[in-house]
């Protein structure tokens, strides 16, 4: 496995371990005061920190929906798509496994929802399948627009991870009550494997919706975000990912 795929593995591991870990451990203790806000920032900080740490190696996707979106936008080679997704899912599963071992190391501990994603009776706020589908599509689409816009050559270099991390924080602030926030099929898969049952039965939505949303965001960006004519005065080179 190349350095790029290892970077995606470790980046996705950190996203799941940090983001879901904050939900599984700290958010379980109200006296710590972390709540939804703390979990949202934890997810944003994982992406921000790993984008700086290994983004220069792999592009810092850490998310199959992002990889698909960047492929649709023509910013990422299709030949690398499947290996990236495999690396991301493996990173998420290993992180979930580590969280499971730590959590069950406490006497009498139960994994409960284990930060898994769900709709209907398994939505934190009781939101329907349609609600979950729409919010995951919309938020992933805008996440791709932020990623493509902040990494474009006309934007000041070095600030993209900040914008992307804050976008992911905002996404969680909006959608934790609806789906516990996925916008990332790898993140959803790791947790669902250890919850089993309902989480695996509902996992299809948290692959379908983010990937559809990522593709939509890429198409929208290509329509309005790119330069109209390559090579005209003031044009910029596409961002590298």
What can you see in these coordinates?
The chain starts with a helix and ends in a 17-residue tail after the last helix. It has 241 residues and is mostly helical. It has nine helices and no strands.
How are the SSEs placed, and which strands pair?
Blueprint: H1 3-24, H2 35-58, H3 64-72, H4 81-103, H5 129-150, H6 160-179, H7 185-195, H8 198-201, H9 205-224
Class of secondary structure makeup: mainly alpha
Radius of gyration: 17 Å
Provide the helix percentage: 55-70%
Give the helices and strands as they follow along the chain: HHHHHHHHH
Overall, the morphology is: globular
**Strand content of the residues, in percent?**
under 5%
Notable features of this structure?
241 residues; mainly alpha; disordered C terminus
Quick gist of this model?
Helices cover 64% and strands 0% of the residues. By secondary structure, the chain is an all-alpha fold.
